[in-house]
Each structure stands twice: as structure tokens, then as C-alpha cells.
Design brief:
The structure holds two protein chains of two kinds. By secondary structure, chain A is an all-alpha fold. Chain A has a single domain, classed as MetI-like fold, CATH 1.10.3720.10. In chain A, helix 9 packs antiparallel against helix 12. Chain A is globular, with a radius of gyration of 22 Å. By secondary structure, chain B is of the alpha+beta class. Chain B has two domains: 225 residues, Rossmann fold (3-Layer(aba) Sandwich), CATH 3.40.50.300; 104 residues, Nucleic acid-binding proteins (OB fold (Dihydrolipoamide Acetyltransferase, E2P)), CATH 2.40.50.140. Helix content of chain B is 25%, strand content 35%. A six-stranded mixed beta sheet of chain B has the order 6-7-8-3-9-10, sandwiched between helices. In chain B, strands 13-12-11-14-19 form a five-stranded antiparallel beta sheet. In chain B, a hairpin with a 2-residue loop joins strand 16 and strand 17. The longest helix of chain B has 18 residues. The radius of gyration of chain B is 24 Å and the shape is elongated. The two termini of chain B are 36 Å apart. The chains are: A mainly alpha, B alpha+beta. Chains A and B meet through helix 7 and helix 8 of A and strand 6, helix 2 and helix 4 of B.
Chain lengths: 260, 341
């Protein structure tokens, strides 16, 4: 073995170490018996994992995050599915512009989006915090919804809709009878991707959160500023395993990676 | 409604945006006829078929079916079936559910539905495939499902888009027979679109040859094959030697040439390679190419007419490349063309 042949395996090892390492450190820290967030952990205990479930603000912010992730993604799909359909089936003037605009929230940094929403929408129009968060999360998830649903629509021949019409179905009926069932996998994948995106979203939520109304990640930051115990690590680990579980289930049952 | 016009297209004009695809088309089809719409791609045959189905709005003119004006009737209320070239089966439904789709929309349920679907599947020989998904079937089987799916609806007209073009040679013959049988048993009026003249000749009662959005000729397969009215149709059905007539003389790339016999009055004349007399005659040609086709042999001759294609029985002694041959284009055998383009 010379230095050259070691180079590639070594690089690979380092890349994996940097990807997985922080996660393993957080997981290890969650089981610490000590009073502060530290690595290596001091002793072993489940007390911090138990504590996560007793912090009241975590419960409220978890509920808020869940509401935004499910509600925002559902709203994005309600808007995104018809939009994707129109973009993929009709030669609309300016379709490319629409595609680009719809993708904008992916490209523009979240801090800018959050600030813009706060400064020009929320404050001038006195929009309630929950509504502002809901609208923001819907907008953030929309690009993913359109992209994933479009991909599965492009794989579906449009003549099955005409076939359905000639067999007596209305145009709208054909959409629900033969288009929707065939893009169900894409819709589920878009939902999961949207859910995870929304749930993990920090910068926009940071700007729009207000007294008593926070998403879970924002609440975790606030918590850490006051209390520096391993319960945040414990919560992070729990969330990470939840996300991993969802993505694995999606890949297993839906062939998630086909659409993303 | 007269019997001769079960389905009639009256001054039908169809367009995609500002591009007119079919202009002022008139066509009358009898009940129970098997019609082929034949022509090269872009001739408007598929466009016409889509307008009959109601999938394409009519710009002007009318579509009448069984005595009723269908021009503004939406596609889902026309009782017109269409077997798509791609079959367009619903991928998420089983073969059974595909065939049941339209019947369920009609409100049919239970034993009546089941009996109809089973009969439909049986008629195309796919009873044992009822629970398969379309993706698990061969192309030929998928097409038969598509046929059954349309036929159980008892359409007034069944349209078929290139029904044989996706099938291999053996299946093609099978499907041809199948379509003729279905047509005979049910008496349904069938219109199929094709670019393949052999397919149209073999299957149709009448052939409608289309070109550039208009009808070039309507006739029985014998009419079309033996008596093409235009240079376009002649070329399409396999005439190779086609010349315009000018004052009783043929206009060729080598100038005006007097025929051996008396020239008939027509805009042009056409000969199949098989109609060219080889070995005797007033004209001379040099063999430029030859090809053996089993029971016949083809020659490409360099002549004062330009290139001439001739075909003779394979049993006759072969001529070598470069050989000088006598030949004739007999006027009495030629197809008389009234239109030259």
C-alpha cells in the first residue's frame, strides 16, 4: 500500500466522518448523566430523554411545528397539484417563468424571505403570527410540491385522460379517476419531502415567531440560550430518528427516490 | 337520414390555432362500413379522427352521426369509441377494471356489469388475464384489452388509430382477422387511421386517401389499387413510373416522348413496375440496378424517360448490369390520372 492508493479510502472515510460524526456526537450526548451538554458524555442515563417530554414549551412548539408541517404541506399540494398539471399538460405562455418563480423560495435565503415577509406583509397588515407562519411554510414547501408532482405527471401519458373521456367521464372526472391514482406515489413523496422541509425550517420561522407561538426548532434555540443541558441533544436525536424513520418508510413503500 | 350517411362530415374544417389542418372535408360513411383513412403523416387523417371523437373542436362545418348533429356534443356524450395507438390503458387498474371503467360510469353494477365485462374479455380471448395489470401484458394483449374496453360500450362508431403499426408481422395478421371478426359480429361502423397502404387494402371496405388536409380519393381497395385518380395516390399505392401527359405525349426528364400506342386523354399516366414490358418494344434502356425479390426480379433502367422501374417473373433469364434492353410502356395498361401534382 502506497500513499496514493490510501488517498481515496481516506477521503471517503473523512467525508463520512464529517457527515455522520456530528449526528453521532449528539446522539451520544443525549444519553449523558451530566448536567451540561458535553462530549464525551458523562456516564449514562435516560433522564434527559425523559425531560424532553416534560418541558411544556416543547409540547406547544412541537404541536405548532406539526400543524405547520402537515397543514402547510397540504395547502402547498392543493395549490401545487393543479399548478403542476397546468404546467405539464398545456403549452402556457410564460410557463418557464412560472416554474422559476415557483422555485424562488428554494433559491432565496430563508433569512431574506423571513425578513421580507415580516417587514412588508406581517407588520403593515397586522397578520396574526400563526397565519403568517402558515402562509410562509406553504410558500416554502410549494416548490418541492410542484417539482415532485410535475416529475410524476411528466411520466404519465396524457392520452389516458382522453380514453377516460371517451368512456363517458368528464374532464374533471378523468383527472380524479385516472390521473390522481397514477400520481399518488409522487404526491405522497411530495408530502413527505414537504413535511420534513417545513419541520426543519429555521430562518423564516425565526423572523415570524412571536410571543407564545414558536416552531420547535426556534423553541430549541430559545431554550439553549437559557438552559444548557443535554435535553436539546436528546430532542434532536428523537427528531432525527423520526425523520429517518419516515424517509426509510417512504423509500420502502413508495420508491421515494424515483421522484426526488 | 339516408342509409348512405350514417356518419357524415360536412364541410369540416379543423385547425390547430391558426394552422388549418383539414379544410372543407366532405365524407359520408354507411352504417357497418369498415373505412380506412390512409395517408402520410401530416395529411390530416388523425386530426379528422379526433374531430369525429370530439377530442378536437370543429372550426367550421358539421359532424352528423345517426341522424343527430354531433358538432358541439362533448366527447363523453358521443358514443364513439377510440382505440389509441398507445392503447392508453389505465395503468393503475386491472384488465377487468379497465374494461369495466366505462360501464361503471354508465351506472352499471353487480351481475349485469360482471356479465358484460366477462363477455368483453372472452370476445378478445383474455378471460384468464382479468386480474393482471396492463404492464404485465404484451403489446398485442394490451391492444385487445383496449378493443374490449371500447367495444363493451357498444359505440356507434369505433375509431382505431394505427391499429396494426405497433405489432410484429405475425400479430398483425392475427389482429387484422380479429378486427374483421369483431366488425362482422357486431356490425359496428369502424374507421381506422393508417399510413400503411397494405393495411388499408387488406382490411377496409372503402379507403379514403388523404393529402394535405383534403380527400384525394375515395374508393374500394380495388379502385384505389388499380385506378388511382391522381399521381399522389398512384405513388402511394406502388406505381413507380408516373408521368404527366401533354398533348398526347409524356413529359419526362428527357423531354416529350410519344407513346407506342394511342395516348388516352388524361392528365397523366402511371405504370406499376409489373406493367412495364421488358425485352420487346420501341424504347431502349440500360440496366443500372437489379434486385431479386423471391418470385420476381426488379430492374432499374436508365432510359430516355429518365429512370424506369420494371419487374418480371423471377423464372425468366436474368439480365446483367449494363445490358441494353428493349422495353415498352403500353398505353392500354396504364392507370389514367385525372390529377397531376
Amino acid at each position: 500500500m502506497n500513499a496514493r492508493s490510501l488517498f481515496i479510502p481516506a477521503t471517503l472515510f473523512l467525508v463520512i466522518a464529517f457527515l455522520i460524526g456530528p449526528f453521532l456526537i449528539i446522539v451520544a450526548a443525549s444519553f449523558s448523566a451530566g448536567e451540561t451538554l458535553a462530549f464525551p458524555p458523562q456516564g449514562f442515563s435516560l433522564r434527559w430523554i425523559a425531560k424532553v417530554f416534560t418541558v411544556e414549551s416543547f409540547q406547544a412548539s412541537f404541536a405548532m411545528s406539526l400543524f405547520l408541517a402537515i397543514g402547510g404541506t397540504a395547502a402547498a399540494l392543493v395549490l401545487g397539484i393543479p399548478a403542476s398539471y397546468a404546467l405539464s399538460r398545456y403549452k402556457l405562455p410564460g410557463a418557464e417563468i412560472v416554474r422559476t418563480v415557483v422555485s424562488a423560495p428554494i433559491i432565496v435565503p430563508g433569512i431574506i424571505v423571513g425578513l421580507a415577509l415580516l417587514r412588508y406583509i406581517v407588520v403593515p397588515f397586522q397578520v396574526g403570527i400563526t397565519l403568517a407562519l402558515f402562509v410562509a411554510h406553504t410558500a416554502l414547501v410549494l416548490p418541492y410540491a410542484v417539482r415532485v408532482v410535475s416529475a410524476s405527471l411528466d411520466n404519465l401519458r396524457s392520452d389516458i385522460e382522453e380514453a377516460a373521456v371517451l368512456l363517458g367521464s368528464s374532464r374533471l372526472g378523468a383527472f380524479f379517476r385516472v390521473v390522481m391514482p397514477n400520481i399518488r406515489g409522487g404526491i405522497m413523496s411530495a408530502f413527505i419531502l414537504g413535511f420534513v422541509t417545513s419541520f426543519n425550517q429555521v430562518p423564516v420561522s425565526l423572523f415570524l415567531s412571536g410571543p407564545g407561538v414558536r416552531t420547535l426548532p426556534v423553541d430549541m434555540i430559545a431554550y439553549m440560550e437559557i438552559v444548557f443541558d443535554p435535553s436539546v441533544a436528546a430532542l434532536s436525536s428523537l427528531l432525527a430518528f423520526l425523520s429517518i424513520g419516515i424517509v426509510f418508510a417512504a423509500e420502502r413503500f413508495l420508491g421515494f427516490s424515483r421522484y426526488v | 337520414m339516408s342509409d348512405a350517411s350514417y356518419l357524415s362530415l360536412e364541410k369540416l374544417t379543423l385547425a390547430y390555432g391558426d394552422t388549418v389542418a383539414v379544410a372543407d372535408l366532405d365524407l359520408d360513411i354507411r352504417k357497418g362500413e369498415l373505412i380506412a383513412l390512409l395517408g402520410p403523416s401530416g395529411c390530416g387523417k388523425t386530426t379528422t379522427m379526433r374531430a369525429i371523437a370530439g377530442l378536437l373542436p370543429v372550426k367550421s362545418g358539421r359532424v352528423r352521426l345517426d341522424g343527430a348533429d354531433m358538432t358541439r356534443v362533448p366527447a363523453n356524450k358521443r358514443a364513439v369509441g377510440l382505440v389509441f395507438q398507445s392503447y392508453a390503458l389505465f395503468p393503475h387498474l386491472s384488465v377487468y377494471e379497465n374494461v369495466a371503467f366505462g360501464l361503471k360510469l354508465k351506472g352499471m353494477r353487480g351481475a349485469e356489469l360482471d356479465a358484460k365485462v366477462q363477455a368483453g374479455l372472452k370476445s378478445v380471448g383474455l378471460s384468464s388475464f382479468a386480474n393482471r395489470k396492463p404492464a404485465e401484458l404484451s403489446g398485442g394483449q394490451q391492444q385487445r384489452v383496449a378493443l374490449a374496453r371500447s367495444m363493451v360500450m357498444e359505440p356507434k362508431v369505433l375509431l382505431l388509430d394505427e391499429p396494426l403499426s405497433n405489432l410484429d408481422a405475425r400479430l398483425r395478421l392475427e389482429m387484422r382477422t380479429e378486427l374483421q371478426r369483431v366488425q362482422k359480429e357486431t356490425g359496428v361502423t369502424m374507421i381506422f387511421v393508417t399510413h400503411d397502404q397494405a393495411e388499408a387494402l387488406a382490411l377496409a371496405d372503402r379507403i379514403v386517401v388523404m393529402k394535405g388536409g383534403a380527400i384525394e380519393q375515395i374508393g374500394t381497395p380495388e379502385d384505389i389499387y388499380n385506378r388511382p385518380v391522381s399521381s399522389f395516390v398512384a405513388d402511394f399505392v406502388g406505381f413507380e413510373n408516373i408521368f404527366p401527359l401533354e398533348g398526347g405525349q409524356l413529359r419526362t426528364s428527357g423531354g416529350l416522348i410519344e407513346l407506342s400506342g394511342e395516348a388516352p386523354s388524361a392528365a397523366g399516366l402511371a405504370w406499376r413496375p409489373r406493367m412495364v414490358t421488358l425485352g420487346t418494344g420501341p424504347f431502349r434502356g440500360t440496366v443500372r440496378g437489379t434486385s431479386f425479390a423471391g418470385d420476381s426480379r426488379e430492374y432499374l433502367l436508365d432510359t430516355s424517360f429518365g429512370a424506369i422501374k420494371a419487374e418480371v417473373e423471377a423464372g425468366l433469364p436474368a439480365h446483367a448490369l449494363g445490358a441494353d434492353l428493349l422495353f415498352d410502356l403500353p398505353a392500354e395498361k396504364a392507370a389514367l390520372l385525372s390529377k397531376f401534382s
